[in-house]
């Protein structure tokens, strides 16, 4: 059945949004925001334009009292949305936050029940994948409630992810989405691209009047948990202007969460000056309280001051609270100088020597200065001095004039005093990513402008070299490029070169690598001497590939088959490596997966 709607879903670190457009309405795309029913207080529900990305794990007595069960509302094992966000300040040990950031944290088992992080033993825990699935499921249920005659499974759905998400994080997102009821053929779209699509939606055909061939768009997307940097170039194709992505920055775990924490430290010092020192529990609660105060103070129509309160603890504060006030000027000054300081061209993030033992929390960047990360990105992806660069900003933090002004100033400094062009930024910072995703789906079917993107990295497979064994030393590992930078999703590529031996019929470990800075490598490029700084290893795949043919007199069973490679990147950005026997018509597919017991199709 053909789709009636294009649905865009923003699975955000702080807020989730669903936008949609009717595909056969005629004329320009008409986008709307889906209202998502959620619990806002005990025994009280409301449909809001966004779903806060917080999940509260209720206590047994709360479950028994059905305080969070509402008529005609689906039942979930956690409480998501507005109430969970509010409870994060009062009961932080029972609230899951930043599940999306945990989804891309390679230092933990993302399929294990680890959240809420450091919760008490009596609190039920969930994996980052399950937490993401619960948020997506609530959005899917909201769609079904509003459009019972248009099942989500039959719509054209686009789900957004950070541009810097690696293959593992994308596959985990896919697993969560399918478990939540999204259609099997849904599309993953990078968030900076979605922001550009939102700009295209709002600009219409006039976008070609604002940019010219050879000019570039620098997208700076500062979300709740991550910062994404992308560079796009305006090119001419068959007499028409098109946008082509040139570069994507590395995964930066710095964003609104860091700003909330910085504000929490600032407020904690104010409490200390009043003679109150907070314990660990109060500090976590303060972090969540500061998130709400920051958003209010940064909003264009927000208040000039906010009172921040934390529940009292200990004998001196029985039943009481501690409170202090912060002003809009204080917050803007703190965030401008802490996260957007002035810097010179070529500046790079300050690297601190790691401590031998580290807590297994989220691996936030050691340098919170987004402008220094931006400087490094531009140094690694140089732009012609005479090329005009337009800056496109996305993310709720850019509601603050002071932050917008500072980043335009810094980009001008990094470009030798050449001020970046202003595209008016995205028109709707709260809903931009979801709207852009829905517009992408609409443009894909209706023939509108599409960004030429492809893979943000080059991908390699590890080949163990032949040679004599040396005690205590593994054989050197070569890396062969199987998917080049910029390969369009849904495309295939043959990998030229010599035959490679494939182990079948017994357990083997397959290693995959990625590089963001080796854009000139073509399929078949072999790296014999490389460093961990050049290539980043993704999660290895351990599997036994089945011998798909029975042994015969002419073709005896063997554990070692000569093959050649072909690579493919699916519409979801999942790497598929096909191994074709050079002796017969047998072939094996290695699809990147994240499960401990990986399965390989034959």
Structure description:
The chain has 602 residues and is of the alpha+beta class. Among the domains are: 5-188, Nucleotidyltransferase, domain 5, CATH 3.30.420.40; 256-339, Actin, Chain A, domain 4 (Alpha-Beta Complex); 458-591, no CATH class. The strands form eight sheets. Strands 1, 2, 3, 6, 10 and 11 form a six-stranded mixed beta sheet that branches. The chain has a five-stranded mixed beta sheet with strand order 14-13-12-17-18, sandwiched between helices. A hairpin with an 8-residue loop joins strand 2 (15-22) and strand 3. The longest helix has 19 residues, at 128-146. The two termini are 30 Å apart. Mean pLDDT is 85; it is low at 315-319, 550-556 and 593-602.
Please sum up the structure shown.
With 602 residues, the chain is α+β, with helices and mostly antiparallel strands. It contains 13 helices and 29 strands. 43% of the residues are buried.
- Uncertain segments are 315-319, 550-556, 593-602
CATH architect. name of the domain at 5-188: 2-Layer Sandwich
Summarize model confidence as the mean pLDDT. Answer: 85
Q: CATH superfamily of the domain at 5-188, please? A: ATPase, nucleotide binding domain
Distance between the termini: 30 Å
CATH class of the domain at 5-188: Alpha Beta
Biggest sheet details: 6 strands, mixed
Overall structural class, as computed from helix and strand content, comes to alpha+beta
Judging from the principal axes of the Cα atoms, what is the shape?
globular
By DSSP, the count of extended strands is 29
Rg over C-alpha atoms, rounded to the nearest angstrom: 25 Å
Per DSSP, the total helix count is 13
CATH topology of the domain at 5-188: Nucleotidyltransferase, domain 5
Strand content: 25-35%
Helix fraction by DSSP (H/I, runs of at least 4): 25-40%
